[in-house]
Specification:
globular; 161 residues
Length: 161
């Protein structure tokens, strides 16, 4: 397996999830993720050294999604959870997801990206590289972002807590 194939295999699912969380449209998500990986491949072909390709991919995916949203001149709601066999559970999950989506939309772009990438289990170093936040500030910024998200959820949807 080539180094590029290894990177693709390791990071495709994560970049796809990020794009889906930001756009919620599976058709365009695949196109954007493909463009990001193509861009990485072309950079590597041109001998551009990318030390943290995972972080680079997340950041590039984020910016491609933002560009797409700007072109559409509207922000889309995140995709609802797929239904499960248990209708009540599916309804509750859908409602919870809608609350979370609305709360995430209250955050600014950098905070939203940080929260989404944190949910993907990126390390602080990867979060710093993907968001442009200095490494020594990631923990505090993340803490503030999560507290802000929690506050919004408690204020708007207190029956959930």
């Amino acid at each position: 397996m080539t180094p590029f194939e290894t990177i693709y295999t390791k990071h495709y699912a994560g970049t796809h999830r990020l794009a889906t969380k930001l756009l919620g449209q599976s058709g365009i998500v695949k196109d954007i993720v493909q463009e990001v990986f193509l861009s990485l491949y072309e950079r590597r072909k041109d001998a551009d050294v990318i030390e943290q390709p995972g972080a680079w991919l997340y950041r590039a995916t984020y910016y491609k999604c933002i560009d797409y949203l700007k072109q559409q001149s509207k922000f889309c709601q995140l995709e609802n959870l797929k239904p499960t066999c248990d209708y009540q559970l599916a309804h509750e999950q859908k409602e919870t997801r809608a609350w979370l989506d609305q709360a995430l939309n209250i955050l600014n772009d950098k905070e939203r990206l940080l929260a989404i990438l944190y949910s993907e289990d990126l390390s602080y170093k990867e979060l710093a590289l993907a968001t442009g936040i200095p490494l020594n500030s990631v923990g505090k910024t993340l803490s503030r972002t999560l507290k802000k998200l929690e506050k919004v959820l408690k204020e708007e949807y207190n029956e959930m807590f």
